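Entry 14. Structure prediction run on the chain below.
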Amino acid sequence: MKGAGSRARMHATLARQGKGFLVLDLGSSPNTTMSRVAHDRLLQYLGLPAQPDPDLMSLSFLAVHVREEALEALHIDTRSVVPQAVMPPVTLNGTYTDDWGITYRPTTIGGQILYYEMVTHPLSRATGPRDLATHAWPQTPDTATWEALGLRAAALAQDTEYAVVGHPGDTSLFEVGIALLGMQRFMMALVREKELVHALLHHILDVQMRRMEGFLAHVGQYLDVLCVGDDLGQQTGLLISPDLYRQIVKPYHKQLFAAIKSKTRARLHFHSCGGIAPLIPDLVEIGIDVINPVQITARGMSPADLAQRYGDRVAFWGGVDTQSLLRSGSPADVRRQVRELASTLGKQGGYVVGAVHNIQADVPPENIVALYDEAWRISKG
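Output returned:
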């Protein structure tokens, strides 16, 4: 059977009983895949046919559904259940507006689009909760979207032994708040306009709960892992204080996670970039089983320290540095870090190997192959 042993090894790993082997992930979510350019280069390096127009998981990242033949070549243990991102109408200058009302513009190098960045924040002028009532909030995706994913999830669960990983395409609360108000306004509002922030988070939570309910109704029974995310950190630590997170944001996360846990037995995987170590106990308290991407170059994110402090309570997923190592290191350097992470983050048996966030356009394909080849070697003993 395809993926022989992958699901069992994932369950053992997320129960922190995976000592002596690694589980390999690439492409399981919009935060653990690769850019379109990196994907093109990898296919060429592996001698696989080009895929000029791959399906996307994320429009802003231009992050792809990785081609099945590439996943097989790299011995990847996970398979994704993620909706295809559909590009809205694009203006003459290349911008598009998403269903939250946020406009994005393309960033290009040599005429090639690498990603899209936000240029408008539709609620930046909101003065109070009443202004939120007239905003055009996203509609719940139609049932056909979830039905198609349900068929894929069922096939993966019944016909393969891959670990089935789901993500409905958008799950954040805090990040959406920043995007709607703008970073500066949102951060100030957390302190000065708490009534507005609570009303905003309430609206966002309502959208995400409806989206998650539809998704899990069709795929929840088949998933081994469910991914959610909300970037709470940066290179130098948290974006807000632990106290402010606990007072304002955590209650909304708690409601979302509790609803998820009531509808699926899947392990709950939480993505947040940056130095989020101070919040790991809070996240575990409200239901998180897995921390991703484990940005080891951020403050407070030493692999050895994370494993010592939290390795008995949570599993780790990611860890291989995309910021400099994968981009400019040698294959030997990459292999060395994989071994180091296996012995630190994997010390208590709870480590899924992968890159820190999506693999970017400037990562040489030989380093991608080195990452997964070394992890595969360790996994096979």
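The longest strand covers residues 103-109.
Filed with the rest of this week's runs.
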